[in-house]
Write a structure and sequence with these properties.
Length: 590
């Protein structure tokens, strides 16, 4: 590839043709601030925070979209200045103009201390006094959805949320309404978000640089339950939470905090601290059995995984014809609650009506999922409260727990025991790999020599593999991000592809990149693959685990022997399986 050399602040930098000034500056160890830019999905040069001086250019240039240039005819190099007085003053004025129409109640904002706008104001010496204050645009506030709140008084019109919804997810239920000073981000015709075909994935929240979008917070409800002496409060934590929670306490991306997380949950006052990995193993037992039954008995294929509630809702809205392909298995979150309020309650002599089941998830769609119909096989909700990784971090801080100083502790047994196969559920391809480990050994009756199905690993949006198992050819596909799910489903519909098993996760990269994970500023997201770094945590845990197959988890074996009978039994179906709804798309949101 052709290379260009340019000068940035007097330093020569060589980069491939097509590299932007923003990227080239990073190579030179220089950070150029941005507010609207998100790599690959939102390069619109709108916020003007990234402007730089380019020698010979009439005006300041937006570094996020301006490519580096080849040497001039006279041999001179393109010269760029990122920190001249003119540039610095321009950025300061831009920040002041943004603040002139911004709700500056920063102290009570959920993003205080973790806000990209706040951080830039601090760096550029812009205070809370509005030099350009005047009329303010009308601010919309939408709390209609089950999972999130939109507060447009804190929106800076960067459009990152719009890009995430449209380009990553292929949904586009939000966009810019009106023009000029009246421009605002919202749904078509100013509809409430709950009335659109939003799937509750929360990717818009993770893209937002300010406090304009945030999850509905249920931490007060959790604290109230913990402090109610009549309640037994159980908590389950999803695999991906241990790979992201540490970031909220200043630890590097890709730090495994499983032990400290268990310790923190005990110190918060939960009666039992369990691991959703147990239910992930249970999901594999039921799902692998369902897959083999469909293959042997001419059932509906391809079988498509159902553990991602954002994907399930997307399927119900946009591809209702594929709801019959969905596995009937509940998600691990819901399976866990069902078992806790039946098997665990009976075994421990506890009235399930006194149990408050709390889940800690990397996913905002879990807040929607707990309210779905057919999620209460015990005559009560499987899970009572779902909180995100971010909410758990806030609880730990509010309780004064010194997270980084905690000892590593283990989960309570037996519902705290999970296999290596279960923990990789948090990464795209993990559910597929876990299912294959069990399905292959079940079909062949032989022990797998190599448990690593590397073809379905990695952060690519779509992955394919073909396996020959006991004379049966199994074509599989893995998709993460709903725009990629659309590609896979369209290929199946057209007959271009013939798969037997498909894994789909709503969030790009899987649950490690869920809508409830700790916020990562664009200055990091644009240059670090956060998905891959978090996924490494899960694969390392799997590799070190002495139990790496769901069907070899002794706690799962005990559950079936004592209570469920066998995978796919009538009792298992009653507790662990669900049904789906063929929803319509509200025509106003497309």
């Amino acid at each position: 590839m052709e290379q260009y050399t340019v000068k940035i602040n007097g330093i020569e930098v060589t980069a491939p043709k097509g590299t932007t000034i923003l990227e080239a500056a990073r190579m030179a160890g220089i950070n150029i601030p941005t507010l609207c830019y998100l790599k690959d999905i939102n390069g619109i040069g709108a916020c003007r925070m990234c402007v730089v001086e380019v020698k010979g250019a009439r005006n300041l240039c937006a570094a996020c979209v301006y490519p580096i240039e080849p040497p001039r005819k006279d041999g001179s190099l393109m010269e760029i200045t990122t920190n001249s007085p003119k540039v610095m003053e321009y950025r300061r004025k831009t920040l002041k103009l943004i603040l002139s129409d911004h709700n500056r109640s920063c102290l009570s904002c959920v993003r205080s201390g973790d806000c990209e706008l706040q951080e830039l104001c601090r760096e550029y010496g812009v205070d809370n006094e509005g030099e350009f204050d005047g009329a303010r645009s009308e601010a919309q506030y939408d709390e209609s959805a089950a999972h999130m709140i939109r507060d447009n008084s804190k929106c800076i019109l960067c459009r990152r949320c719009v890009a995430a919804c449209e380009k990553n997810q292929g949904i586009g239920v939000i966009g810019a309404n009106n023009r000029g000073f009246k421009t605002s981000i919202g749904c078509a015709f100013e509809m409430d978000l709950a009335d659109t075909s939003c799937v509750s994935c929360g990717q818009c929240i993770t893209a937002c640089p300010t406090g304009a979008l945030y999850e509905k917070d249920f931490t007060d409800d959790v604290f109230a339950a913990i402090n109610d002496p009549t309640k037994i409060v159980l908590v389950e934590t999803a695999p991906a939470v241990r790979a992201g929670l540490g970031e909220a306490f200043g630890l590097p991306i890709g730090t495994d905090v499983e032990g400290k997380m268990a310790a923190a949950l005990r110190r918060l006052g939960f009666d039992k601290v369990f691991d959703t990995n147990f239910a992930a193993d249970l999901t594999i037992m039921e799902e692998a059995t369902e897959f083999l039954d469909r293959v042997k008995n001419g059932g509906k294929l391809p079988l498509i995984t159902s553990c991602s509630p954002g994907w399930v809702k997307y399927c119900e809205h946009y591809y209702p014809e594929f709801t019959e392909n969905l596995s009937s298995c509940k998600s691990p979150q819901q399976m866990f609650g069902a078992i806790a309020k039946s098997y665990w309650a009976e075994k421990n002599g506890v009235d399930p009506k006194n149990i408050v089941m709390v889940s800690v998830m990397p996913c905002t769609a879990k807040k929607f999922e707990i309210g779905r119909d057919d999620q209460d096989a015990n005559g009560m909700p499987d899970v009572d409260i779902a909180i995100t990784t971010r909410e758990l971090a806030r609880m730990i801080k509010k309780a004064g727990i010194r997270f980084n100083d905690l000892p590593d502790e283990e989960f309570d047994r037996p519902l705290g025991l999970g296999s290596g196969a279960a923990v990789i559920f948090g990464a795209t391809g993990g559910v597929m790999e876990a299912a294959l480990r069990t399905a292959v050994e079940t079909l062949t009756g032989e022990e797998l020599k190599n448990l690593d199905f590397t073809d379905v690993r990695g952060v690519e949006g779509v992955k394919e593999a073909a396996y020959e198992v006991a004379g049966l050819k199994v074509n599989v596909a893995v998709a993460s991000g709903l725009a990629n799910a659309r590609k896979v489903l369209d290929m199946v519909k057209s007959g271009e592809k013939d798969y037997q098993f498909i894994e789909i996760m709503a969030c790009p990269g899987g649950c490690v990149n869920g809508g409830g994970q700790p916020q990562v500023h664009a200055s990091v997201r644009n240059f670090t693959d956060v998905r891959a770094e978090r996924a490494k945590v899960l694969y390392n845990i799997d590799a070190a685990n002495t139990i790496r197959k769901s069907h070899e988890n002794p706690a799962i074996k005990e559950l079936y022997a004592e209570y469920l009978g066998e995978p796919g039994s009538e009792k298992a179906h009653h507790l662990l399986h669900t049904t789906y709804v063929k929803r319509v798309i509200n025509r106003k949101d497309i």
